[in-house]
C-alpha cells in the first residue's frame, strides 16, 4: 500500500495468478497495470479483485479465458482483446445481475476509447452474460471482418471463419461503431 504507482505491473499471462483475497488498493494508481504482451498459452481464470485491471495495449488470446463475476477490466486508448481466425479460443464472462463483469474504457462514458473484443476465432463456449461493455470501437478489426468497428466481434466471416457464442443480458454502450458484429447464419445467439 501507499505506492506512488500501481500495486502491480504484470504481463497478460499473469492476470490469472492473482487471488481474490489479497489487497491491491490504496496506491497512487487504483488499478493493476497489465503491460503489453501476449495472452496466456494455457486456459486462465481471472478473479474479481479489489482493484481493476487496466489493459495497456491489444492482447492476443491463445487459449480460453474465464472471467469471474464482478471483475472490472479497463482498457487504455486503442487497447482490447483479440483472437485470430486460426485459433478457436473462448472468453467465458458469466456475470450475475448483482455482479456484472465490466469491460470499459479507462475514461468512463467516452465513445470509442478502446478497440473492443475482436474474437475472430471463437468456439461455442464463448459467453458474455450480465456484462457491461462501454466505450469500445476505436479501431476497425481488419479485412476479415469488413473493416468494421464494434464492441464485440465474433468470427472472421470474410475469411471463412464463422463466429460462435452467446451474448445475453449485456449492456453495450458508447461504441464508435456497432455493438455486436458477426456473420449472417453464424451460430451466435443474442438475447
Quick take:
By secondary structure, this protein is mainly β. The protein is built from no helices and 18 strands.
Q: What descriptors fit this protein?
A:
191 residues; 35% strand; six-stranded parallel β-sheet; mainly beta
Q: Can you offer a commentary on this structure?
A:
With 191 residues, the chain is mostly beta strands. Helix content is 0%, strand content 35%. It is built from no helices and 18 strands. It has strands spanning 9-10, 31-34, 44-46, 52-55, 58-60, 65-67, 72-75, 80-83, 91-94, 101-105, 116-119, 127-129, 131-134, 150-154, 165-168, 171-173, 178-181, 188-190. The strands form three sheets. Strands 1-2-4-7-10-13-16 form a seven-stranded parallel beta sheet, with no helix packed on it. Strands 3-6-9-12-15-18 form a six-stranded parallel beta sheet, with no helix packed on it. The chain is globular and about 50 Å long. The mean pLDDT is 91.
Rg (CA only): 16 Å
Major sheet details: 7 strands, parallel
Q: How many β-strand runs?
A: 18
- Pattern of helices and strands: EEEEEEEEEEEEEEEEEE
Task: Provide the helix percentage.
Answer: under 10%
> Taking strands numbered 1, 2, ... along the chain, how are they ordered across the largest sheet?
1-2-4-7-10-13-16
- Number of DSSP helices? 0
Task: Write down the overall mean pLDDT.
Answer: 91
* Shape descriptor: globular
Beta-strand content: 25-35%
Q: List low-pLDDT spans.
A: none
**Termini gap:** 42 Å
Classify the oligomer. single chain
* Class computed from helices, strands and strand pairing: mainly beta
